[in-house]
Write a structure and sequence with these properties.
The complex is a heterodimer of chains A (178) and B (228). Chain A is built from eight helices and three strands; from the N terminus they run αβααββααααα. In chain A, helix 5 packs antiparallel against helix 6 and helix 5 crosses helix 8. A three-stranded antiparallel sheet of chain A has the order 1-3-2. Chain A starts with a helix and ends with a helix. Chain B has 228 residues and is of the alpha/beta class. In chain B, the strands form two sheets. In chain B, strands 6-7-8-3-9-10 form a six-stranded mixed sheet, with helices on both faces. Chain B has a four-stranded antiparallel sheet with strand order 2-1-4-5, with helices on one face. The relative contact order of chain B is 0.20. The chains are: A mainly alpha (178), B alpha/beta (228). The interface between A and B is medium-sized, with 25 and 19 residues.
Chain lengths: 178, 228
């Protein structure tokens, strides 16, 4: 569960309260989805239950009272372990896309699968264009470029797969329906 | 909607018995970046050559600023290419005997600029693409990426209305290609230059505002560029 570990990482520099964590999360991971306050507090709750973070004090600077959290020793070890773990190199988006192609062939026909592949390609291209525009915009930060590149690399791989699969739909259909 | 800056209607072109384009329509607005994509041999480079007035279409019309350039003489089309168009190919195609500054100044000299002024402008463009320090180097002393930056500077030096780029990063590694394209895109956005970008690569096509995909000489509306 990556969000929890990102929060542990943000707490590694010193105690923070939930609002501050949300702000730092959204600022540091610009291409990630903004995190909801509810998710920050729910995640902090689980991290506290598991002993990875602990309340470190109350902060009441010109606003409502906020609880600050700090990393525990166990939390710091968890963060180190997570950083050392290699992720399973499994494709993720394409698996859903792949399932749809096969189901389309099972339940409909090759045209349905081709229509879906073409529509999916258009959606992927639109996103690729947005990300490329973000990284080429004047004043894009290195963080923007690096984050966009990560998503671009994955979308590009999916696009190649969509294209080659288009040429194999007829053959695949024979296999799926045999 | 305003008239497009450049358009092709029903462009058809054959080389001997080989049909390269069969009735392609395309429109490019002022300042717009349009990618032309598709697999090898789909006709994308031929389309670029027809739009740039380098070759004449067998059928169909190419219109630039409301004028049918197919009706123009070779000399008039040559002037158009020199004054209003910039071209950029896969390999920089720099003149090996000339320095970077001389290469970039060349289109200005051909258009009648004075030598001093042309050099000054050329160095300004080299600077914009981060290679001003190479102004007095010959291409052989430069990396592929540096040569391509010079080629981009040369394509932009006359402040053209349209740049035609045929696989402009095809000979570069990925990072160098991205840097060259990013700089090209920033420069054309600032100048309001339109671009026709020929590429077979989706991640390069994504630098454009939109794309048209060709398959066997016709536009493929699915965008996939593969035969079912």
């Amino acid at each position: 569960m990556s969000t929890a570990h990102v929060l542990l990482g943000l707490l590694a520099g010193g105690p923070r309260h939930g609002y501050d964590l949300k702000r730092a999360h959204d600022e540091r991971l610009p291409k990630a989805k903004p995190i909801a306050y509810g998710q920050v507090y729910a995640t902090l709750g689980r991290l506290e239950r598991d002993g990875f973070v602990a309340p470190s004090g109350q902060d009441q600077e010109s606003g409502p009272e906020r609880t600050s959290y700090e990393l525990t020793d166990s939390g710091r070890r968890r963060l180190d372990d997570w950083l050392a773990e290699v992720e399973t190199p499994a494709p993720y988006v394409t698996s859903t896309v792949f399932n749809k192609v096969v189901v389309a062939l099972m339940t409909a026909d090759a045209d349905r699968a081709r229509g879906y592949l073409a529509a999916q390609r258009t959606a992927h291209m639109t996103r690729l264009r947005e990300l490329t525009a973000a990284k080429t915009a004047p004043g894009a930060s290195v963080g923007d470029v690096v984050a966009a590149d990560y998503a671009i690399g994955h979308l590009d791989a999916d696009l190649r797969w969509l294209q080659t699969t288009m040429t194999r739909v007829a053959e695949l259909q024979k296999e799926v329906t045999s | 909607m305003t008239d497009p800056l450049l358009s092709g209607v029903g462009i058809t072109k054959s080389y001997g018995p080989t049909s390269a384009l069969r009735g392609v329509d395309i429109e490019i607005a002022e300042g717009e970046l349009v990618a032309v994509t598709g697999p090898s041999g789909c006709g994308k480079s031929t389309l670029l050559h027809c739009l740039a007035g380098i070759v004449r279409a067998d059928e169909g019309t190419v219109t630039y600023r409301d004028q049918d350039i197919g009706l123009w003489s070779e000399a008039a089309r040559s002037r158009l290419r020199r004054d209003d168009f910039g071209v950029l190919f896969q390999f920089g195609q720099m003149v090996p005997e000339l320095t970077a500054a001389e290469n970039v100044a060349l289109p200005l000299l051909l258009a009648g600029s004075g030598r001093q002024e042309a050099r000054k402008t050329a160095i300004g463009w080299l600077d914009r693409f981060g290679v001003a320090d190479l102004a007095d180097q010959r291409p052989v002393a430069m990396s592929g990426g540096q040569q391509q930056r010079c080629a981009v500077a040369r394509a932009m030096v006359t402040e053209p209305r349209v740049v035609f780029a045929d696989e402009p990063t095809g000979a570069l590694d990925r990072l160098a290609g991205e840097q060259v394209l990013t700089e090209l895109v920033r420069a054309v956005r600032e100048q309001g230059t339109a671009v026709v970008l020929v590429t077979h690569d989706a991640s390069i096509s994504a630098y454009a505002d939109r794309e048209i995909t060709l398959l066997d000489g016709v536009v493929d509306p699915s965008g996939l560029g593969v035969a079912p």
